């Protein structure tokens, strides 16, 4: 594996720990294929964020951030898969509670999603 590929995952983990470590119980790299990787973040309330990112150079090509309850039920899922063309923020969108509930999404990065989760955890 190239050094740059390891650095990408380490940068993301560092960002999570530095900015949002107070929310996090554990982090686990599930897959790392260079500029495509998956990370599982378990929060202190036992909810989980399953994140997937695909990069080319310094450009985030695709992402999927799915926030689940401890019993694996969807809370919110954000992604940019180009399959909901009627959403104003296409390709960015989010799934709420049930996969069929689609909303526009202005949270288009890990940082945005983590801030939204942080806000919701504080409100509960």
Structure description:
The protein has about 120 residues and is of the alpha+beta class. The chain has one domain (about 5-124). The protein contains 2 helices and 7 strands; from the N terminus they run H-E-E-E-E-E-E-E-H. A hairpin with a 1-residue loop joins strand 6 (about 95) and strand 7. The longest helix has 18 residues, at about 5-20. The protein is globular. The mean pLDDT is about 90. InterPro entries: TumE-like (IPR045397). Pfam families: TumE.
List the helices and strands and how they pair.
Layout: H1 3-20, E1 24-32, E2 36-43, E3 48-56, E4 59-68, E5 74-79, E6 93-96, E7 98-104, H2 110-123
Antiparallel strand pairs: 1-2, 2-3, 3-4, 4-5, 5-6, 6-7
InterPro entries: TumE-like (IPR045397)
Portion in helices: 25-40%
Major sheet strand order? 1-2-3-4-5-6-7
Mean pLDDT: 92
Low-confidence stretches: none
Find the structural class using helix and strand composition: alpha+beta
Strand fraction equals 35-45%
Instruction: Give the CA-based shape.
Output: globular
- Gyration radius, rounded: 14 Å
Q: How many β-strand stretches? A: 7
Number of helices: 2
Total domain modules: 1
Task: Give the biggest beta sheet.
Answer: 7 strands, antiparallel
SSE order: HEEEEEEEH
State the end-to-end CA separation.
Answer: 41 Å
Pfam family, one: TumE
InterPro entries: TumE-like
């Amino acid at each position: 594996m190239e050094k740059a590929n390891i650095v990408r995952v380490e940068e993301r983990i560092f960002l999570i720990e530095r900015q949002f470590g107070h929310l996090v119980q554990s982090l686990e790299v599930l897959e790392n294929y260079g500029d495509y990787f998956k990370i599982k973040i378990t929060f202190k309330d036992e909810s989980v964020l399953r994140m997937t990112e695909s990069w080319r150079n310094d450009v985030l090509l695709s992402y999927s951030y799915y926030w689940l309850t401890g019993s694996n039920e969807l809370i919110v899922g954000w992604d940019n898969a180009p399959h909901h063309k009627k959403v104003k923020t296409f390709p960015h969108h989010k799934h709420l509670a049930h996969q069929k509930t689609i909303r526009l999404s202005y949270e288009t990065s890990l940082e945005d999603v983590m801030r939204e989760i942080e806000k919701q955890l504080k409100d509960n």
